[in-house]
Amino acid sequence: MNRIHKKYFNNSGRNIFVHLVLILISFVMLVPLYWLVKTSLTGENIYIYPPSLIPKNPNLYNFVDVYYWIPFARYFLNSTIVSVIVVISNIIFNSMAGFALCRSFPGKKAIILVYLGSIMIPFQTTIIPAFLITKRLGLLNTHLGMALPLFSIIICIFVFKNSFEAIPSSLIDSARIDGLPDWKMIYKITLPLSKPAIATNVILSFLYSWNSFLWPLIIIRDRNMQTLPLGLSRFFSYFEQSSGQIYAFSILVVAPVILVFLLSQKSFIGSMLSGAVKG
Question: For residues 209 and 147, is the Cβ–Cβ distance under 8 A?
Answer without folding.
Answer: yes
